[in-house]
Design goal:
By secondary structure, the chain is of the alpha/beta class. The protein has eleven helices and eight strands. The chain has an eight-stranded parallel barrel, surrounded by six helices. β4, α6 and β5 form a beta-alpha-beta unit.
Length: 291
């Protein structure tokens, strides 16, 4: 699809290209009793100069959003800070950003990227968790065959008074069948297996799904293990399944929406299209109807 058509699709799922649009979208969600996680779009940079610029932008975003009293936290992708160029430089950038969030009594979520990054990102999280225990969390992906074992290994990790905090999602990157589950229901089953392990081991769970079946099964697990509301939340992407999202909020559960913005929207948008390709046909139909 041409880039202009992808932008028509993207406007529903991205707050905008600039910080002001991200702020406005976040305020509106806060007014609906929904918290946010802010994400500056971008990944897989090619120079350390870009990494430095991305760090400066994140520090500015944290300063601005906290000063505006937005109820939410921040997400970032390590490849934006040079993970695949220089791991130590990446770590130092992330450390500075997490330190800024800690100074503001806030929180950074490290997004999980494709399989070439997983092991390194787990180690980055461990290193930052030891120093900034209550201010950093990680995304884990249910479709990876290694994930439950990663959780088992984390179960003995020192919490320093703050539970391990994981955002559990299905996973979106295209991975080989040797390392990732491919069957739709099989991924669902492992999502619930991972979530149950988290509840049993007193880990904070960000239940990130738009799948009504998984939402309902997650609620059953919450009831089964009598999980306090302080130990879980539901999470969704901006612009996706608003009816389901609102029903979860109305039922009294905490909801957080991932609010992406920035000029580097193209890769994010194409991943959403690959995840849900029938959207492309809806865009084309809408254009003809509008015409």
């Amino acid at each position: 699809m041409p880039k202009k058509l992808i932008w028509l699709f993207s406007k529903r799922y991205i707050a905008g290209e600039g910080m002001e649009e991200g702020l406005e979208a976040s305020r509106k969600l806060n007014e609906q009793n929904i918290e946010v996680t802010i994400d500056l779009l971008g990944e897989f940079i090619t120079s350390l100069e870009q990494a430095e610029e991305n760090k400066k932008q994140y520090l500015e975003i944290i300063e601005r959003f906290t000063s505006e009293n937005i109820r939410g936290n921040f997400s970032l992708k390590p490849t934006m800070f040079g993970l695949l160029i220089d791991q130590e430089v990446c770590y130092q950038h992330l450390r500075e950003i997490v330190a800024k969030a800690a100074e503001k009594n806030n929180f950074i979520r490290i997004d999980m990227e494709d399989s070439q990054c997983v092991g390194v990102e787990l180690e980055l999280f461990k290193k930052l968790k030891k120093e900034f225990s209550g201010h950093v969390g990680l995304v884990i992906q249910a479709y990876l065959k290694r994930t439950l074992n990663d959780l088992v290994n984390f179960s003995n990790f020192p919490s320093n008074g703050h539970p391990l905090n994981f955002r559990l999602c299905k996973g979106i990157y295209v991975e080989p069948k040797q390392i990732a589950y491919k069957d739709y229901q099989e991924v669902r089953n492992h999502f619930l297996e991972d979530l149950e392990f988290m509840f049993k081991n007193k880990m904070y769970a960000g239940i990130a799904t738009h799948d009504k079946y998984l939402v309902e099964e997650a609620m059953k697990l919450i009831d089964k293990y009598q999980v306090p509301k302080s130990m879980y939340e539901f999470q969704m992407l901006y612009g996706v399944t608003p009816e389901l999202r609102n029903s979860i909020v109305e039922a009294g559960h905490k909801m957080r929406v991932y609010v992406p913005f920035g000029k580097q929207w193209f890769n994010y948008s194409t991943r959403r299209l690959k995840e849900n390709p029938e959207i492309a046909s809806h865009i084309i139909k809408a254009l003809f109807i509008k015409g």
